[in-house]
Amino acid sequence: MPPSVDSVVVPPRGHRVRQTIEQLRARILDGEWPVGGRIPTEPQLVAALGVGRNTVREAVRALVHAGVLECRQGSGTYVVSTDELAPVVARRLTDDRMTEVVEVRRAFEVEAARLAALRRTPGDLAALDGALAAREAAWRGGRVDEFVEADAALHTAVIAAAHNGMLAGLYASVGAALRSTVAQSMGDTLEPERYVDHSRLVEAIRAADPERAAREAGAFLESPVRA
Questions:
Q1: Domain 5-82, second-level architecture
Q2: Per-position b or e across 4-35, b if 16+ CB within 10 A of its CB
Q3: Per-residue b/e over 112-141, b at no fewer than 16 CB within 10 Å?
Q4: Helix-strand-coil split of the chain, %, nearest 5
Q5: Where is the HTH gntR-type domain (predicted)?
Q6: What is the pTM assigned to this prediction?
Q7: Phi and psi torsions of 79, nearest 5°
Q8: Are 128 and 205 in contact (CB under 8 A)?
Q9: Residue among 196, 213, 210 at smallest CA distance from 136
Q10: Which of 13, 39, 117, 184 has its CA 20 to 30 A from that of 99?
């Protein structure tokens, strides 16, 4: 016999909304709805998630407020970020906060370099060598945008070699802001005086020398903004 209406447990409305937010977030993180792509329409979400229109509407509104989704009049709702912290950091990134951004970079990157020297694996060293070579090639190519991405990839490889999941997640959240500061410091062209050699950092990590690795990572960030 099917359960009666009275015996069916209906979660409180707030709980249903939270569950729906988590379902939407999971699909975004899994890549089902990539950044820049449009999510299904409200009726489609209702059918797919098995909840009411109001629940879907509130969950979408929450993710819009968090900066993960963006509603575009007459077009639909789009994914603009996979991370709720990244838009917050981006909004705070202004010229008068450049010093603060550099301080945040130091907090992440110096400790990451120290940990990487202690924990790096052969796979990490191979990734660092590849990222360093790509960074050098990007500099020789002369395109600022390509160099900024290659520089970010090298720093991300150092973070990964630290083998600290929380540190990696936080660094990913502020990655766009950090790349923006590097791009601003480079200007429109790659000038020789702005070049910073990162090979000593990689060698310190390879040598399992945490103090030297931390020192090399910090040296990049002594001036207002360096890559």
A1: Orthogonal Bundle (1.10)
A2: eeeeeeeeeeeebbbebbebbbebbeeeebee
A3: bbbbbbeebeeebbebbeebbebbbebbee
A4: 70, 5, 30
A5: 14-82
A6: 0.64
A7: -80, 125
A8: yes
A9: 196
A10: 117
Are the CB atoms for 98 and 184 separated by under 8 Å?
A: yes
205-to-17, 18, 103, 151, 166 alpha-carbon distances in Å: 46, 43, 22, 17, 20
Separation CA 160–CA 137 (nearest Å) = 22
Question: What are 154-185's pLDDT values in tens digits?
Answer: 998 999 999 998 888 778 777 767 777 777 77
Q: Which segments of the chain belong to CATH 1.20.120.530?
A: 86-219
CATH of span 86-219 = 1.20.120.530
